[in-house]
Amino acid sequence: MEQLRAIKQAESRLSLIGDHASVLSGKLEDLLFRAQRIAQSLKDDAKVKSTDSMFGYDLQNFRRDVRAFGNDAGGLSSALGSITHAAQYDESSLIHAQAVMRLSDRLYKSLCALLDQAVLAHQHIRQAEYKVDAWYMVQEVESLTQQAQVLPGIANKLLVAVSSRQVAPSASMTTNVFPDGCQGGIAPAPPVLQRRAAVPLRPVGKPFPSSPNS
What's the whole-model pTM score? Predict the structure, then answer.
């Protein structure tokens, strides 16, 4: 019961974080479009000042949202790993473990797409005052992507642990066969070899001492 509740909580958390990643992707897509438009206007006439005066402000807000997303997603891999470590076969948890696997893969792919958008936006931004913020944005999104990279693997291990029964070893595997038809878990003790007493050697050139009666 505890395992089922923990897996449901992980599923709910992954779903919320995945939705948050989709929101970030929409905001970055808007920034990318505006960066392309500003770059095109500067390419046509470098002396023309951009009319998008809110671009830098929105870029800083996006970086703030990325950091908040990192706080929400922080520790997700550790929590999922703890559940996986203690997971056992449970048919009722199978559906939720499959959902965790699907959501983990979705989150990782969403962050990979977010990183591609961030890199593309950084390439289109030409203004020096925005270029630094864009570079830090790429680094922050890349860090999130690396943290989420292990999630599909952990979720796959959880799915395997929940869906696999532990097969008890058969008698033929546990019974040891020994020589002379002996069976069992303990091998017969080897025979004890007793060492015979050493016979004293006669010194060379000296006879054995004769007995007093001789």
Answer: 0.72
